[in-house]
Design brief:
Strand order of the largest sheet: 4-3-2-5-6-8-1-9-18-16-15-10-12-13-19
Largest sheet: 15 strands, mixed
Shape: globular
Helix content: 40-55%
Number of strands: 19
Oligomer: single chain
């Protein structure tokens, strides 16, 4: 009997592998929108018996859409919603077209894509690194009178996290309503986690989509990568900066990381609070509705801005469509600075076409990524970009986590999104689409500073790479659907 079972188990495993691979093939073909992702997952399922199918179940299935649908996220409304709806009117769009005559189509695209209108009357201030961002955020928290909502991908239990913990605890002690949401993956970078410390301090805190694979958490999908802080419903902060020591450069951290954050004042703060409220309701079922969370907002500046939420549910492809629209609308200059630049064939072709139309396309990436495989995977795409006239620069250490995209000195996209498959397809992100010459000029000046100290990548350099190096990078590039 034992001998019979021993002879039978290869057949059972083979049948199980075939059935699982068929299941993966059907699910991927029906649900995946990106052809490379379909090919990659189907190939992995068939060529890596059992393991490939298990990886697909763990990392390839988009469960968040089903979970969000089952929960029926509570609507998040506020007094500013009336003002928000009015901004979709023809009169406002005509005024915007007069200021930015080459961009009215892009403005309409943003409305069609996100459903969110542009809002005038905002002030957006650049905050470089933690040296400018953290003191500004802490000052706002310390001055809070009614509410604080904080969402971060990473909230480390280190000296910087301790400073924020004390400020949040003090705010709660004086009667401020505090809500903190941390991505479950991002909460695990330090131990004990800041989540547990916030709970011990009596602060309402939740984690986004707890993962069942803690040892593999760095590579889990469907993460909340947004960075949002809103104080009293009036003052907002967003951008690319997590809460951790590495960003506070003046304190000489062990792993310094440059980045860019923004303070936001004006009606578009509503969109920051709304994005937080939707995620908070999803995680806790508590609806943050109207006062004190959504007070009536007033104008503070001249920037016209739109909140652009993005994620693998109803907001899927918001950012991709907006990026493609901006590239097609560009007439003079496109500037991109991003730490993880691993684009698909659609974006690659759009950048090439922009350059071939005579648009100056400048792309800035770190000289050395904090993820070695990302360096390898990014490199093969630079040659086709350079061949069509794009310029690519590698900025020197420390690692540059800055994220910004500008067009023609008039338009910018700022926020948390990386130009890679994880951000564009798998993560929840938040960005601001901004129409303003002065803000764009400030961003262009920052990117120009990076370019001045950066090293340009040349075709000769790429062609001179040895065959083993080119093969290594090409193999890494094939992993784009999984990275």
């Amino acid at each position: 009997m034992l001998s019979f079972l021993a002879d039978l188990w290869p057949v059972v495993v083979s049948i199980g592998h075939i059935m699982a691979a068929i299941g993966v093939t059907i699910d991927a073909v029906l649900r995946k929108r990106q052809v490379p992702a379909v090919i990659g997952w189907v190939g992995l399922a068939w060529l890596a018996p059992v393991i490939g199918s298990m990886l697909y179940v763990g990392f390839g299935i988009n469960r968040i859409k089903r979970a969000a649908t089952a929960l029926q996220r509570e609507p998040v409304l506020g007094d500013t919603g009336e003002f928000r709806a009015a901004m979709a009117g023809a009169e406002f769009m005509n005024a915007l077209a007069a200021q930015h005559p080459t961009l009215p189509g892009l403005a309409r695209l943003g409305l069609q894509t996100t459903g969110n209108p542009l809002m005038p009357g905002n002030r957006i201030s650049l905050l470089r690194d933690g040296d400018e961002a953290y003191p500004a955020m802490l000052d706002a928290i310390n001055a809070a009178q009614k509410t604080i909502t904080l969402l971060s991908y990473i909230f480390d239990n280190d000296a910087t996290g301790e400073t924020f913990l004390h400020a949040l605890t003090a705010a709660a002690a004086r009667g401020v309503a505090v809500r903190v949401l941390i991505d479950d993956v991002g909460s695990r970078y330090t131990r004990p986690t800041m989540t547990s410390r916030l709970r011990e301090a009596g602060i309402p805190v939740a984690t986004f989509l707890p993962t069942r694979l803690p040892r593999l958490f760095r590579y889990a999908n469907l993460r909340n990568h947004r960075k949002i802080l809103v104080v009293d419903g009036h003052i907002g902060f967003t951008g690319g900066m997590n809460i951790r020591d590495g960003h506070w450069l003046s304190k000489n951290p062990k792993g310094p990381v440059r980045c860019l954050h923004f303070r936001v004042d004006g009606p578009v703060v509503y969109e920051l609070q709304r994005a937080f409220g939707v995620d908070w309701a999803f995680c806790t079922r508590e609806a943050l509705d109207r006062d004190p969370w959504f007070p009536r907002l007033t104008e503070h500046g001249s920037i016209v801005a739109r909140g652009v939420p993005h994620g693998p549910d109803s907001d899927l492809e918001n950012i991709l469509e907006l990026i493609l629209g901006a590239l097609s609308a560009a007439t003079h200059h496109v500037r991109i600075i991003n730490p993880y630049f691993l684009i698909d064939e659609v974006l690659l072709r759009a950048l090439q076409v922009a350059a071939m139309r005579g648009v100056a396309v400048d792309i800035v990436v770190p000289a050395k990524s904090n993820l070695l495989i990302m360096d390898w995977a990014m490199t093969p795409q630079f040659r086709p970009l350079l061949e069509k006239g794009c310029r690519v620069f590698r900025s020197p250490a420390p690692f540059d986590h800055t994220k910004a995209f500008t067009v023609d000195g008039q338009w910018s996209l700022i926020g948390s999104t990386n130009w890679d498959a994880r951000s564009l397809l798998l993560n929840f992100e938040f960005n601001l689409e901004c129409y303003d010459v002065e803000l764009t000029a400030q961003l262009d000046a920052l990117i120009d500073e990076r370019i001045e100290s950066a090293r340009p990548i040349t075709l000769a350099e790429l062609k001179a790479r040895s065959l083993p190096i080119r093969f290594r990078d090409g193999v890494a590039r094939l992993g784009a659907p999984y990275l």
